[in-house]
Amino acid sequence: MKLMDRNETLFLAIDFQERLLPAMHEHQVLEDKICRLAKGMKKLGIPHIVTQQYTKGIGETVPSVAEAIGKFTHAEKTSFSCFGSEEFVKQFEAADKDTIVACGIEAHICLQQTVIELLAKGYRVYVPADCTSSRSQEDKERSLARMMSAGAIVTTYEAILYELVRDAKAEDFKAISKIVK
């Protein structure tokens, strides 16, 4: 196993939506962590894909997360796995990356199904546990265990950002340090 390389990495934010996020276990902590991860990924120049599940019924990506990510055109979906969305598949194929940082809600549904498909297709998948949730803590924990047993690397947003920076002398180190503190 090798360390992540920012030139090979894609950030995938799944369904951080207005009517869904507030229903998640410890949603305020989740919102803070996903915003920090998104700001860090933006600072490091990591490309991103944002999905929304049935936007008409569940709403847009919450403003704080949308602002942290920056400019995006979401991939609309009704399927639980992102691969059921033609918009997602087009964006994903255009990104042409082999390492995916995947986070989202709900962990045991949309995130889990997408991660399992990514792994089956041969991608390296990192799941920041602190940037994912479900309505219940048990669903989240079981989902993280399943994704890990399938081959995903379950870690934290801070570990991911510092792995991408690699060195305290790196140009982006101070900016990333400010984001995580």
CATH class: Alpha Beta
Within CATH, the superfamily carries the name Isochorismatase-like
Q: What do the pLDDT scores average to?
A: 97
User: Helix tally?
Assistant: 8
Sequence stretches where pLDDT stays below 50 over 5 or more residues: none
Q: Beta fraction of the residues?
A: 15-25%
Number of domain modules? 1
Helix proportion: 40-55%
The CATH topology comes to: Rossmann fold
User: How would you spell out the order of helices and strands?
Assistant: EHEHHEHEHEHEHH
Oligomer type: single chain
Q: Profile the largest sheet.
A: 6 strands, parallel
Query: Biggest sheet, strands in spatial order?
Result: 3-2-1-4-5-6
The dominant shape is: globular
**Tally of strands:** 6
**How far apart lie the N and C ends?**
29 Å
Our Rg estimate from Cα atoms comes to 15 Å
Structural class: alpha/beta
What attributes does this structure have?
six-stranded parallel beta sheet, Rossmann fold, single chain, 46% helix, 6 strands, 181 residues, alpha/beta
Description:
The chain has about 180 residues and is of the alpha/beta class. It has a single domain, classed as 3-Layer(aba) Sandwich (Rossmann fold), CATH 3.40.50.850. About 45% of the residues lie in helices and about 15% in strands. The chain has a six-stranded parallel beta sheet, with helices on both faces. β5, α6 and β6 form a beta-alpha-beta unit. The radius of gyration is 15 Å and the shape is globular.
